[in-house]
Amino acid sequence: MMQEPLVITIDGPxxxxxxxxxxxLAARLGLMYVDSGATYRAAALKVLEAGIDPNDTVxxxxxxxxxxxxxxxxxxxxxxxxxGDDVTALLRTPEVTLAAAQVSRLPEVRVKLIELQRAFxxxxxxxxxxxxxGTVVFPQAQLKIFLKADMEERARRRLKQDSRDxxxxxxxxxxxxxxxxxxxxxxxxISPLMPAPDAVEIDSTYLLADQVVEQILExxxxxxxxxxxxxxxx
Length: 234
Fold this sequence. Notes:
The chain is α/β, with parallel strands linked by helices. It has one domain: P-loop containing nucleotide triphosphate hydrolases (Rossmann fold), CATH 3.40.50.300. Helix content is 44%, strand content 14%. The chain contains 9 helices and 8 strands. Strands 2-6-1-7-8 form a 5-stranded parallel sheet. Strands 3-4-5 form a 3-stranded antiparallel sheet, with helices on one face. A hairpin with a 2-residue loop joins strand 4 (80-82) and strand 5 (85-86). Helix 1 (18-29) crosses helix 9 (209-222), helix 2 (36-49) crosses helix 4 (94-103) and helix 2 packs across helix 5.
């Protein structure tokens, strides 16, 4: 009997460390890394480029229906393509971040992108990070992690990777923006941000990324999902 591909989900709010931890963990285990949020950001970017209100359900649905989102999974960092164009460098602006939170509430968007996200694990193991991966995308994943951290630390981390002019990006403003994103994620009717019932919660506030990765590897070893050396999936 063929063994199911190993799927590890890492959910949590902005700035909790999902991307860094997921990439490091995937590298350690030789699995594919997928940032589900990049697919929503790509959809949001297309909506913004079309000059459409992200809350206009009909118009957004029309644009998304004509949009082809792909994520490359070759060597190095994953790249996001929209209708064949590499838009990876455009996905981290505050405008796209907010629009992504808005369009992700729409059923038409979620249905299309969840199907894309699930396709990554059909033939090989993945470490996928996002906000509803353990609850909706892969409810049967072998290991589910929910990362959290206090607001000040999350804002500090996000500020470091912010693409805006540093003179405009303040800790207070960044905290406000991720707080607003938290509210949108928690209040949406479809797939609200919450830990899966069987997820292991890890507070990363005072932990380095490699310390979080080691905790997850230990969980995987204890469940016999990876070899003792933690380098590859069984």
